[in-house]
What does this fold into?
Amino acid sequence: MLLNAELLLQYQRCKRRPYLDAHGDKSQRDAPSELLLKLQQERVTHQQTVLEQINYHKPEYSPRNWRGGAKATLELMQQGVDCIYQGVLLATYRESYTLLSCPDLLIKQPGNSRFGEWTYFPANIELGKRPKQEYQVVAAFHAQVLAAVQEVAPDRTWLLLRGAGMYRPPHAVDLAKWIPQMHSILKDCIATLEAPEAPEVFISRQRCNLCRWYSQCYSVAQSQRHLSLLPGVTPTRYTQLQALNLTTVESLANTSPSELENLPGFDEKVAPKLVIQAQAVVEKRPLILDYPGNYVGYKSRLLSQNNHISTYSYSPIELYFDIEAQPNLNLDYLLGVLVVDKQNNQEKFYSFLAEKPEEEALIWQEFLDLVWEYPQAPIFHFCSYEVDTIKRLAKLYRTKHHYIEPLLTRCVDIYEQVTQTVALPVESYALKAIARWLGFEWRDPEASGAKCIYWYDEWLETGDRTLLEIIQRYNEDDCHATRRIKDWLVSFMLSPES
It folds into this structure.
């Protein structure tokens, strides 16, 4: 059986995925998402940027003919070429396994090996900007297989990260540290692959969203009512709950918070909040986070005059603010503002769109002009990104201090207000999850922030204006969704039953 670096990489992210890749029914996999395809293309582009700076040889072999590729790579190494791109290395491991290593680069240096007075060391071109553990474990894997092939261990391994290249110092992997860890992870991975069943499902959306097995795993988790679907249950906390035999939402809902407070990953704030969250899901209704130590959760405090929600809920004009960005360009290309005039029962959406990256300064000024037309109006947004962006753009474009400070005091983070005051019967506190629980729907059901990144890149390449229209429509719906959640929260907290 072949064990490759990709399998080792994915095992570090999710123990279940390599098992499904090896034994699962591939017809049940999801189609690649636009974001996944975009990331793959970005990695290719980053590789090309690095490769433009060096001369290299590439072994010739047909796709997936690993033995043919290993033979062609070995011939280049015996010739002593300076650099090999997409070489193939094979080494026997425990008789029944073959390690397959395909480092992006094999770089020649002085030394002694089976080939003569030279050796090679591996370098991997990674899309990330920092040397994550998973990258370094994979780099150690390449070094170990290379050592078997050239009969001498390489003295170094490089990571060529995004923002770095051959003209800058690459990240040197500490092989003495990472090779032992790689062996431990490889051993565990093999044990998982040899098990009769796939590892237990655990839904972690930040990691799972790009996986093509997501739908299958999510279906399993839903059928089991798995605790990983409960907001606040991290892998570490789940392990602690398992130790107490708390493996269902119902059992957690019936637990006293005091039983959890001394566990690693829990404290006097996390424990009661997680129990109330479980109760909200079991009872299928929202509950107030009313417990000692919750500085916002008490209803009386929520309704105090110092609280943004209560103070601004009576404002005659309300602004709802949402941003679309392209992180790779460090660009906030769409600043959307929904103006709600409650006195006159009117509303209007403003879409400040940078059709070209260099127009960011223009839309920033247009945004400032609009929000200062209503100097007393609260600016409702969902999560902290909008506030962070106001600070970034103000610094970038040297906006005067007296324009920005009053603006920031008017900002009200609805996500923060919700998560600190109520527990909802939802699987996630993302904008879409909460708004859809309230019955709100986006006009383009498949649209998302990640897809907007992809669509904006496509717009820059193709000039297809329908892509901009979809993005603007999605952004406007985000503003309306934020409004729906804010209105519901105020109404719920003011209702006698709450």
In short: Residues 295-306 have pLDDT under 50 and may be disordered. The first strand starts at residue 2 and ends at 4. Residues 465-494 form the longest helix (30 residues).
